[in-house]
Fold this protein.
Amino acid sequence: MTTGTRATRLFGDHFLERLQPDEQATVQQVRDLCRDTLGPQADAVSREDLFAWDTFRTLAREGVIATAFPREYGGTDARQALRIRLIEELGRVCSTSASMITGTDLSSRAIVAGASEALRREIVPRLCTGELQAAFALTEPGAGSDVRGLSTTIRREGGRYLVTGRKKFITRASTADWFAVVGRAEDDPSVFIAVLMPRDAKGFHIGAEVGKLGWFGVPISSLEFDAVEVPASHRLGAEGDGFSLAQDALLRARIGHAAMALGRAIGAVEIASRYASDRTVFGKREGEHQGVQWMLADMVTQIEASRALLALTADKYDAGASDVSIFASMAKLQATDLCMKVVTDALQLTGGRGYLRDFPLERFFRDAKLNQIGEGASEVHKTVIGRDLMRRAPLAERNPCLRDGPLTDY
């Protein structure tokens, strides 16, 4: 990996300065990787929706994949405070690269938290190096954001489980060696069970890859389970832990979505502001027009505010704070909606060039939408946040500006 002269970044390193020296070095390593390899290759990766093996192998070789796993199994046990910086850097140039990290989070959490020690010793070290891949099979044709709507059933028969049902929109299904599958207990639908299933399990069918708008390089497929046998030793956690394992995996993935979206928004501002510096319109540089400056000012201000919220969320995760789930919803909602707006406005500022296939903002625009949908759509997170607020409001400290008694007495 080459390292050239490092120019000053448009967005400051105030969040990087909060990290430990070794963590800062890891961020710089990924920055160099983005500058020298992943950024220049991003356009080629986005030309066709085939799994980007070269990108994945590069991330594995450089140890980025291993940041999702504990040290005792060959990982680096990276804090979320570090991982959001890494994902932001990757998202700034290549959604494919960033999504390989967020996708790893989904399956890795379920395996590390729920698999037996023997399975962890067998599988996790090879996941760290990229020798193996795992996928997280949760979403179904009739259940996405609503995990409690799952219809896949898992039945216990002696020393095995039988899995029957369908999954949809499963990232990396076509390349995964192992699948963390979540379903309902057949004899008690209120109980959720998670199992770890090998790719070659009898009765397990992986559907064809399906076309999509963006995020090329990480294909999605459907899955079908026809009474697939899974040894009881491959259960993840206890019976009934399936829901909590899924929620924990989704929590980390939501934080990752926010970081990826902010990285892309940062990249969009970098591109649009450079274009506004080069482009002459009505006798002066585009960036000298007040209207353009105001658009860019809104972008930068909101991005920095969103980065601060995400940094707080990562700190809460690392500290095990009880309210981290709500903060993850807020961070994802804010960052992903903001990214869609920033990329749209950046494309508008660059005019016809921004719409060209060869211009990076065209790819940024296509990639931005999925962050608003995956791991809980924006509207779902608004509902979650609003419900939590109204649950706490009646018990919260009363604002001292109010008189005693019901507010309806005013």
